[in-house]
Each structure stands twice: as structure tokens, then as C-alpha cells.
Design goal:
47% of the residues lie in helices and 15% in strands. It is α/β, with parallel strands linked by helices and 294 residues long.
């Protein structure tokens, strides 16, 4: 069977150009993750909202576009082959020579910190009503926490202090506590750190880049390959398309759009979206407290 790739990120293109020894990492109904011998990840996705900084969007397949499921055709033992124009996984040929390039780099400098602060209440109110039980959003205000959430809250307090005083020891210790914390392919602690990084790109000042670099460097070896890929991308200023949409609504300031995108981000994964939003909110609050006039 042949399928077409309609969009690919620069990282996905680079993966194709450099990978000759690759394997299937995970298979789901709407996504398939591959990894090469260096541990770099490529995601094949069927939905636009699932585009990540290291993915390719599969757009058609011999007339069965809407009904296609990766897990009906592939598994972790499916062989992988790569050429300059094609990617083979199992019995499926993915042609990517005509794919448009989607750039996951966020124009962070265009997002105004005052817009972040003015929309924060709307984001919090909506997340409070839709965040899944057990998400790290609870650590921001609730006192009735699970053991996992309690550990995350303690780590966040240390990370917060480390950011405030640019204390390298506190930063490293707190990142070590959060990285890999929780279960799943992207543990909740890593998702929380993603949100922290996104907020630092917008709200941080002179030391923000050094803090981001430290978070990524210390977290990546302590988590899953997929989560490490997300952290590395965030460290380079990249985000998935859903966060691009979310940040665009922040810049617009339209409350209805902010509400809609907050809820859509919160629906990502089991708690992944809500956990990342929690990190974004917590860090944005921190900078808002430091600079009320921003």
C-alpha cells in the first residue's frame, strides 16, 4: 500500500536523510513513532492537530484515507526502510518527495508578556473545569494531592526558587525530581517541564536561555526517548502545532478563542496537555508576581 506525506518538519526531513538503521518504537491507531540508531524519533501522524516538531503528516492512502489505522497494518516488529524519497514501514510505502515543510519554530518574541498575563485567568478557569483527575494542574492550588502530585509540587517549589535566584543547584535538583516523574510515553513531570520552558521563552529575561538549556540537558537522559524528543525541541524553541494555535490565541487576546484552544490542549493525551498547561501557568504566574507591570 502507498500513502502520501503532505507535510514534514525540518527535523523529520533531517531524520529521513540521516537514518538507515531504524525501527518502530510505538504504534497507535492515529500515530506511529520510529527511532533510528541514534535514538532520534520520527512521528507519522494522521491528524493535523497531532503534528509535532519531529513529525510527518500522512494525508492519503489508496482511497481509504479516513478509515486508515496504523495499528491495523503495523506493529513494533515491522521492518523500516528509508530512501531519499520514500519511507517503507512494513508493507506501507510513504512517499514524501512532495511534502510541504512545516516550521515548528515559534516566534516567541512576537508574543507579548502582558497578553500572557491578561489571558491567564481565562486559561486557569477553563482548565479547572476540564483538567483530568490526577493532572499536575492540581498542584497549583489544591491541597488534596496524591503522592505523585505531592512530589511534583515539592519539585516545582524548588524549581521556582531556582528560576527566581538562578540557583543552579536548585534547578538541577528540581529537574531531576520532575524528569521521568509519572507513567506513560511522556511522563507528567516532563509535560510540566515543557510548559515551564514555553513560558520561559515568553516571560523570561536575561537568564531564560541558560535556564532552558539546563532544564533540557538535565531532563533528557532521565526520561523516555519520545519525551526527550519533545524536550529537545522545546529547548530549540519549537512546539507542536496545537501549541502554535494556542499561543496565537494568547497573542490575539480573544477570550472565546483562548477558551477553545485551552480545552483542546487539555484534551491531548491522558493528562499530557493539562500537565503542560500547568507548567505554563505556574511559570507565567511566577514572572507576573516578579513584574506586576508586565
Amino acid at each position: 500500500m502507498e500513502m502520501q506525506i503532505s507535510a514534514a518538519t525540518p527535523a523529520a526531513r533531517s531524520w529521513l536523510n540521516s537514518s538507515r538503521d531504524s525501527a518502530v518504537l510505538h504504534v497507535f491507531s492515529a500515530a506511529c513513532n520510529l527511532a533510528n540508531s541514534d535514538g532520534s524519533v520520527l512521528s507519522l501522524v494522521r491528524r493535523q492537530e497531532s503534528i509535532s516538531p519531529f513529525s510527518m503528516l500522512v494525508s492519503s492512502s489508496d482511497g481509504i484515507e479516513d478509515g486508515f489505522r496504523f495499528d491495523e497494518w503495523l506493529d513494533v516488529d515491522s521492518p523500516v526502510g528509508v530512501s531519499s524519497t520514500e519511507l517503507w514501514v512494513g508493507d506501507i510505502k510513504f512517499s514524501h518527495n512532495r511534502a510541504r515543510v512545516w516550521n515548528p519554530k515559534v516566534a516567541w518574541g512576537d508574543i507579548r508578556p502582558d497578553r500572557v498575563m491578561s489571558t491567564l485567568r481565562v486559561i486557569e478557569d477553563n482548565l479547572r473545569s476540564v483538567a483530568p483527575t490526577g493532572s499536575f494542574f492540581d498542584i497549583l492550588d489544591s491541597e488534596n494531592l496524591s503522592e505523585l502530585q505531592t512530589a511534583a509540587k515539592s519539585a516545582w517549589h524548588n524549581l521556582r526558587s531556582g528560576i527566581q535566584g538562578f540557583d543552579e543547584s536548585l534547578l538541577i535538583g528540581s529537574v531531576h525530581s520532575l524528569a521521568g516523574l509519572g507513567e506513560g510515553l511522556t511522563p507528567a513531570g516532563d509535560d510540566f517541564l515543557l510548559g515551564v520552558i514555553y513560558s520561559l521563552w515568553i516571560m523570561g529575561e536575561a537568564s531564560a536561555q541558560a535556564i532552558i538549556d539546563l532544564i533540557v540537558t538535565e531532563a533528557m537522559p532521565r526520561t523516555t526517548r519520545l519525551s526527550a524528543a519533545w524536550l529537545a525541541a522545546a529547548g530549540s524553541g519549537e512546539a507542536g502545532i496545537m501549541w502554535h494555535w494556542f499561543l496565537e490565541t494568547i497573542q490575539s487576546g480573544n477570550e472565546r478563542d483562548v477558551t477553545s484552544l485551552t480545552r483542546r490542549v487539555a484534551e491531548v493525551g491522558h493528562t499530557s496537555g493539562a500537565d503542560a498547561l500547568a507548567g505554563y501557568i505556574a511559570t507565567s504566574r511566577l514572572f507576573g508576581e516578579q513584574s506586576p507591570s508586565r
